[in-house]
């Protein structure tokens, strides 16, 4: 048998093995999640539940200030087959950090969520999520690690976090709104300095995305910064959920790559 025929036969056998392996894989596979933020857990958990929403909105102005300083994060695992093992979030504005004090919590609608000494507190609407949370980079990065195999496809977790100023003496800064720290509300297309969301998956892959500058109404922004009477409703912060998608190469893509490698190998042996 000539050398070229041997090369062709080896290439054919290798290709058969590659095709058999790839055809046994799912047609598509993606790693994806959805993240959202709000001052109120009820807004994230059931946006259409008007009675719960109305109850939460009749609060004093100083209560709202505390709530915007200790917002909730919602993470939904949308992937078909890859559990999420880790969520990270940078602070955005580095004049602040993630704390564990949760100042004024007793006055808020989330007073029932107990302080544990961790920088992330599990919300009441997503019980049973096992996790550990801690900060790195001097408090500028929050890390939440999901236990028991991770956040499974279809699962949702909501956490409350605390924003502190790097200057404890600045009482006003210690009550900064997440809409000023994680991103620049109505800040246009310049997202430099915004928080970065990172995800780790059970297969070892990671992905990250920087938060956009969400558009919020002037009346909503004013309601946070300007005192209002008790008989005026608290404004709602309706952010659009951010989809995070990191596609895994499909079998067809991998097959083309394998064919190219086999062709290259054949040329080198001729």
TrEMBL record:
Residues 1-32 form the signal peptide. Pfam families: PEP-CTERM. Keywords: Signal. Residues 247-269 form the Ice-binding protein C-terminal domain. InterPro entries: Ice-binding_C. This is Ice-binding protein C-terminal domain-containing protein. It comes from Botrimarina hoheduenensis.
